[in-house]
Amino acid sequence: MQTVEQLKIGISHVVTWAQKRYELHDPVKIIHSLLIIRDGEITPTKLAEAFGCSPSAVTGTVDALEKLHLVARSPYPGDRRKQLLAITRSGRDELDSLAEYLVEQAAESK
Fold first, then answer.
1. 3-state helix, strand, coil in the chain (%, to 5)
2. Which pTM was predicted?
3. What are the structural domains of the chain?
């Protein structure tokens, strides 16, 4: 049961951290998207599948990620209708900042 409590506290810390940084955007979707995209390029459709929703439902999140310079869009090779999403250096820095924050919070809660 302690692991579940630790997980709840960890999630709470992630949401608090993200809310401070992404005031007008859904912080959970921002962080979740970065975690999904971090390992390589992905289409918005694949991102939507990871969220379990339609592609149109992630448009706002992708727009926010791009506006925050956390993700870059590029053309999909061979299909002008599609786009690829890739995490930017700033996006990787954000994930690093989140990891540092979580380590600090874990140290403080001991």
1. 65, 15, 20
2. 0.74
3. 2-108 (1.10.10.10)
